[in-house]
Amino acid sequence: METVDKIKQQIAENPILIYMKGSPKLPSCGFSSQASQALMACGEQFAYVDILQNPDIRAELPKFANWPTFPQLWVDGELVGGCDIILEMFQQGELQPLIKETAQKYASDEAAAQDSE
Amino acid sequence: MNIQNNIEKKLLDHFEPAHLEVINESFMHNVPDGAETHFKVVLVTPKFSGERLINRHRAVNAVLKDELANEIHALALHTYTDEEWHSLYGEAPDSPRCLGGMHRQAS
């Protein structure tokens, strides 16, 4: 699969997704560490991709996203921003409702899909 | 021209900021002495009025596209409108008016 298709699939399948250096438990960069901590503090499950383990994504995603650096937080198919935006939104109390609402939206989608089966 | 001056000049030209700080934070990272790789920018401009954070950051990234592709490894951005900046830090106090000094008329 082309790298850009892999990225599109990851973004489509994971409503809350952070591309970062290292993992939330073992981050390899101060900016990725701060961003993933703010995201964890929102209290919902999220997915992550370690771009140090995925050099093809590291090379391709900045072009696809029109965003030059990492981390990158994607919510519901859209780029929210990098570390500074994530932290500022968290401090202003804007990140928590966005993450909660997205988690709820997809939880109820799943429930609806199960009901219709 | 060093990279820090270059960043300052481009941001001044493009955003006509009310306030601009470009800080070289490379010393905080695992790079050689004197490196210019990690920067923090505080940019206050009326041009950000009504723009979401991601669009403000994208505008800065676009102006610094060449530097980001080559020299800059990390760019911390803090972007505000004049109003947001004043609500964060308040107005700088006005200096007192002149009271005449040595030419003051004896009353």
Keyword list:
heterodimer; A: 117 residues; alpha+beta; Glutaredoxin; four-stranded mixed beta sheet; 5 helices; 4 strands; globular; B: 107 residues; GMP Synthetase, Chain A, domain 3; three-stranded mixed beta sheet; 3 strands; extended
Any overview of this molecule?
The complex is a heterodimer of chains A (117) and B (107). With 117 residues, chain A is an alpha+beta fold. Chain A has a single domain, classed as 3-Layer(aba) Sandwich (Glutaredoxin). Chain A contains five helices and four strands; from the N terminus they run αβαβαββαα. In chain A, strands 2-1-3-4 form a four-stranded mixed beta sheet. Chain B has one domain: GMP Synthetase, Chain A, domain 3 (2-Layer Sandwich), CATH 3.30.300.90. Chain B is extended. At the A-B interface, strand 4 and helix 4 of A face helix 2, helix 3 and strand 3 of B.
SSE-based structural type of chain B: alpha+beta
Tally of distinct domains of chain A: 1
Calculate the terminal CA-CA distance of chain A, rounded to whole Å.
31 Å
Largest sheet of chain A: 4 strands, mixed
- SSE string of chain B, helix = H, strand = E? HEEHHEH
Shape of chain B: extended
Give the assembly state of these chains.
heterodimer
SS field, number of helical segments of chain B: 4
CATH architecture of chain B: 2-Layer Sandwich
Structural class of chain A: alpha+beta
